[in-house]
Design a protein that fits this description.
By secondary structure, this protein is of the alpha+beta class. The protein has two domains: about 15-165, Metal Binding Protein, Guanine Nucleotide Exchange Factor, Chain A (Beta Complex); about 180-335, Peptide methionine sulphoxide reductase MsrA (Peptide Methionine Sulfoxide Reductase, Chain A), CATH 3.30.1060. It has eight helices and 19 strands. The protein has helices at about 40-45, 50-55, 170-175, 190-200, 220-225, 245-255, 280-295, 325-330, and strands spanning about 15-20, 30-35, 75-80, 85-90, 95, 100-105, 110-115, 125-130, 135-140, 150-155, 160, 180-190, 205-210, 230-240, 265, 270, 275-280, 310, 315. It binds zinc ion. Zinc ion binds near residues 80, 82, 83, 132 and 134. Zinc ion binds near residues 80, 82, 85, 129 and 131.
């Protein structure tokens, strides 16, 4: 029997997939291409609990009526315990009596991968996470209206994010990789472009655009644009330090803008477009300074670098229509 079914990172699988992201209000974002979250077997073992590993990476099924999320009734989103991709909503959860969490529809069809499973002498449809290929469970056709489907999912494959925590979903949802994920914050001109530059870099698991480095609490785009707040347009990057280093992110940062332009990037003029690195710990601060010295000493830039390096202060998430702006609107909107 295929009890040793594995879903290790396979070189042959595409490195980019189309999925839908979670918007801050809990709704579904537009389809976008993201890097697959591919880890080696030892890395998965290191990041997941024993139960999560057995389900997600070995394709095992947890005992019936045991899963912690089976009776969860709160309002929120169920994300993949391996990579944080949103998979189901509490609105689609129902009591099936099967002993496993059951849903009549996914958060987004795009976020699931289905395949024929003939193990255990049964004909079933296996459901996996699109982003990390983690095994989730199976889908059957004996579900309730309106879909008639029953997604029978292992609790250990899921992480529940309550509705009021969705704004912080990246941190919550990537709990499975806790200890391996770090945060970096960069300002390098218009945040739409900066987010797009970091979004699909391998090892980057989440990006958010927002405002930081200023004084005003809960700033709006209009206030920041009027230069009333002192904030810079910035991007918060959540990255897997085992996949990409902070130094490599700094190299990308230097390559995507002109750090010698004071308070502007091309046609975009104002202190909100300043070049800045907001560091989250002493190590980042030292690495950023060292990296800037290397860039300054190189022949790369004609003028001195004006980039500010500052300890990070509160990051205010920007309005939802600014998140993934280029995915939503295309790059033709960017002409200044
Ligand atoms: Zn996943």
């Amino acid at each position: 029997m295929k009890s040793d079914k594995k879903h290790d990172a396979k070189q042959a699988e595409p490195s980019v997939v189309i999925v839908c992201r979670l918007e801050a209000d809990g709704s579904k974002g537009p389809p976008e291409s993201v890097r697959r979250y591919l880890l080696s077997d030892p890395e998965w073992k290191d990041r997941l609990t024993e139960g999560q590993y057995r389900v997600l990476r070995q394709g095992k099924t947890e005992p019936t009526f045991c899963g912690l999320l089976r009776t969860q009734r709160n309002h929120g989103i169920y994300c993949c315990a391996g990579c944080g991709l949103p998979l189901f909503t509490s609105e689609a959860k129902y009591k099936s009596g099967s002993g496993w969490p059951s849903f009549f529809e996914p958060f987004a069809d795009e976020n699931l991968e289905e395949s024929r499973d003939t193990s255990h002498n049964m004909e079933r449809t296996e459901v996996r996470c699109k982003r990390c290929s983690g095994h989730l469970g199976h889908v059957f056709t004996d579900g309730p209206e309106p879909t008639g489907l029953r997604y029978c999912i292992n609790s250990d494959a899921l992480l529940f994010v309550p509705q009021d925590k969705i704004k912080e979903a990246p941190a919550e949802a990537y709990a499975a990789a806790a200890g391996k994920l770090e945060k970096a914050t960069f300002a390098a001109g218009r945040f739409w472009n900066v987010e797009e530059a970091f979004r699909t870099v391998p090892g980057v698991v989440e990006t958010t655009v927002g405002y930081t480095g200023g004084q005003t609490e809960e700033p709006t785009f209009e206030q920041v644009s009027a230069e009333e707040t002192g904030h810079a347009e910035a991007v918060e990057v959540i990255f897997d330090a085992g996949q990409i280093s902070y130094k490599e992110l700094l190299d990308i940062f230097w390559s995507i803008h002109d750090p010698t332009q004071d308070n502007r990037q091309g046609p975009d003029v104002g202190s909100r477009y300043r070049s800045a690195i907001f560091t989250h710990n002493t190590k980042q601060l030292q690495e950023a300074r060292r990296s800037m010295d290397v860039q300054d000493a190189s022949e790369r830039f004609t003028w001195p670098i004006t980039t500010q390096i500052r300890p990070a202060t509160r990051f205010w998430r920007a309005e939802e229509h600014h998140q993934r702006y280029i995915v939503k609107n295309g790059s033709h909107h960017l002409k200044g």
